[in-house]
Write a structure and sequence with these properties.
By secondary structure, the protein is α+β, with helices and mostly antiparallel strands. The chain has one domain. It contains one helix and six strands; from the N terminus they run ββαββββ. It starts with 16 loop residues before the first strand and ends with a strand. The model has no long low-confidence stretch (mean pLDDT about 75).
């Protein structure tokens, strides 16, 4: 996504790249609420948190251009993309 605006660092009419804020376009609000209720029933000392990283085949641009102070938002698919994951507790 691009928004035209003045660039103070060069003669072009663009601002410098700004990282987008993504949300999942298929996020199921009902299921998320049910999951949070389920987690709330587990005592905090018994919870185990895991860290995950992965690489997807379908990449989407992380940066866009906008006027200074303008937040760039976009959506991306949360499914149907091949991924290699690594998880650690």
């Amino acid at each position: 996504m691009f928004v035209r605006g003045p660039c103070t660092k060069c003669s072009r009419n663009w601002e410098s790249p700004v990282k987008k804020t993504f949300t999942c376009s298929e996020k199921p609000e009902k299921e998320r609420g049910e999951f949070l209720n389920l987690i709330a029933k587990i005592p905090e000392k018994e919870r185990v948190y895991a860290d995950e990283c992965g690489i997807k085949e379908h990449l989407q641009r992380e940066y866009g251009r906008a006027l200074r102070g303008v937040k760039i938002e976009d959506t991306k698919r949360g499914h149907n993309s091949r991924r290699v994951n690594v998880a650690a507790p």
